């Protein structure tokens, strides 16, 4: 039997519930995202929501397969917060299905480097493969540090690295010693982390910031410790139940032998009830494996992996490592014997000059 309380108590209870919902609604309106800080270590980078919204658009644009539109920054994703970006070099490693660009964002006063992630049509196989990946490469100069062979090779043993380093040097020649921001999604995030480390250690670059989206683990705890010291200005953004940040698996009982994320994670997730749902950004602790962040939920969603901040992070078509390029642009690029392509700023300027000359004679 249910016993009802006095009418005045019932009235107060209804007003309390109504007031609670009104407060929740008022708090959620006009606030796109709430940032919750916890266990912040002051020697590590602070999180900038506005910068994250900008860099995720670069991480999305690098998925474009029309190289002409991408290089000239006229693609469907080459606007909004990234409008006016100038690509210095676009590198496509056809042999290994990799793509990256280096350019200058004048509004950020920075060099931006972006790496493409895994093609979405093959992501299921890639995820299944990650469950069984072993630590199989000793990272040079870091005792006990081991990393994932595939991620390490994708950056260090392909045409990507020399193209990136060359483009960074030329960008500095054109615009001076700018800050460098490195980004990427999924496997592109793994490559971005190796790039940031490479720039700091091997080129002695200063003011390098790495921000990735949906990045998998790339090394063990020893590597994570070295990385956090050498590239402290790093943010890994994870989204809800995104499956990829949970891979390769982390085994807490074998901490020195298992994969381990480096800090700092920022976890996006929704809270609220019914239609009163809004997204929060939790700035996680400095461990890299904060149990109260993405590790507090099951990593079981591919859908959460493909959209961050409402921006799609996937190819615009189901093309298997395919590219589209205007024949005129291809004439001004550099192609090696394996079909790998490098389009540089100097090449496109020469092309435009010659095209203008031709028009004058028509």
From TrEMBL:
Residues 1-30 form the signal peptide. InterPro entries: AB_hydrolase_fold (IPR029058), Fungal_lipase-type (IPR002921), Sec_MonoDiacylglyc_Lipase (IPR051218). One of its GO terms (biological process) is lipid metabolic process. Residues 112-249 form the Fungal lipase-type domain. Keywords: Hydrolase, Signal. GO terms for molecular function: hydrolase activity. It holds the Pfam family Lipase_3. This is Fungal lipase-type domain-containing protein. It comes from Dovyalis caffra.
């Amino acid at each position: 039997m249910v016993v009802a309380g006095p009418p005045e108590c019932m009235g107060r209870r209804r007003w309390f519930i109504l007031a609670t919902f009104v407060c929740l609604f008022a708090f959620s309106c006009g606030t796109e995202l709430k940032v919750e800080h916890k266990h912040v270590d002051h020697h590590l980078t602070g999180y900038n929501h506005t910068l994250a919204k900008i860099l995720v658009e670069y991480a999305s644009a690098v998925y474009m397969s029309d190289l002409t539109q991408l290089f000239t920054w006229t693609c469907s994703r080459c606007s909004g917060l990234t409008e006016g970006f100038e690509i210095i070099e676009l590198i496509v490693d056809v042999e290994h299905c990799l793509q990256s660009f280096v350019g200058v964002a004048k509004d950020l006063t920075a060099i931006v480097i972006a790496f493409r992630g895994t093609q979405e049509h093959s992501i299921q196989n890639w995820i299944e493969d990650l469950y069984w990946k072993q630590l199989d490469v000793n990272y040079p100069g870091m005792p006990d540090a081991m990393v994932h062979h595939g991620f390490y090779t994708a950056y260090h043993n392909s045409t990507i690295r020399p193209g990136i380093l060359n483009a960074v040097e030329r960008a500095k020649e054109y615009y001076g010693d700018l800050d460098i921001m490195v980004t990427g999604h999924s496997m592109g995030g793994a490559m971005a982390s190796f790039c940031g480390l490479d720039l700091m250690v091997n080129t002695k670059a200063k003011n390098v910031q790495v921000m990735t989206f949906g990045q998998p683990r790339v090394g063990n705890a020893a590597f994570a410790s070295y990385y956090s010291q050498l590239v402290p200005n790093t943010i890994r953004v994870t989204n809800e139940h995104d499956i990829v940040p949970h891979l390769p698996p982390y085994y807490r009982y074998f901490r020195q032998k298992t994969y381990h994320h480096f800090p700092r994670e920022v976890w996006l997730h929704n809270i609220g009830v019914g239609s009163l749902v809004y997204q929060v950004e939790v700035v996680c602790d400095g461990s890299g494996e904060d149990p109260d962040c993405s590790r507090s939920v099951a990593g079981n969603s591919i859908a959460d992996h493909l959209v961050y901040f409402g921006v799609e992070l996937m190819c615009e078509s189901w093309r298997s490592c395919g590219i589209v390029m205007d024949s005129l642009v291809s004439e001004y690029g550099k192609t090696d014997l394996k079909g790998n392509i490098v389009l540089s700023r100097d090449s496109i300027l020469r092309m435009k000059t010659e095209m203008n000359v031709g028009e004058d004679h028509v």
